[in-house]
Amino acid sequence: MATYSRRTRIDAPLDAVWAFHRQIDGLEALTPGWMGLRVEGVVGPDGDADPAELFEGSEITMASRPFGVAPESRWLSRIVARERDDGYRMFRDDMLGGPFAVWVHTHEFYGDGDETVMIDTVEYEFPAGPVGPLVDRLAVVGFEPMFRYRHRQTKALLEGGSYPDWMPAVDRDTPAGAEDDT
């Protein structure tokens, strides 16, 4: 199985970066326009449509048509883990259906004073049979610009303390962990 990882330091507190990423609006805000992403539905672990937050068990149905000309790719992702500890937040999603034979994406956030270190790690396999390992290594060509964009967008949207309107209120001066969600 191949692995891709990207790490970025963000000048924003852990709770702000976490609040941004724990909702579907965060995914939409971080997906480059050229990906042609359409979130078709979100179902929470209790079966409720469009939950305010992505908890373990939430499922997301998406479609993507890169550059508006590539064949449409449909995805069904599920949040399979979510952790919160002192100075650390994490969630992991996997793909139940889509273009990869295996897709496990771990989103990690480490508080470091008033800053956050964000790490995205993707473990993946294409359904390419015996040539799969070669195809897997070539995927970085698509992953690199997408994740570079996502990390730049996170910095642009969160650094400076002027957060998107849809994001839950976060006080830059509140210590990490002061909110009471999980």
UniProtKB/TrEMBL annotation:
Domain Coenzyme Q-binding protein COQ10 START: 10-131
Protein name (database record): Cyclase
The organism of origin for this protein: Halonotius aquaticus
Classification of source organism: Archaea, Methanobacteriati, Methanobacteriota, Stenosarchaea group, Halobacteria
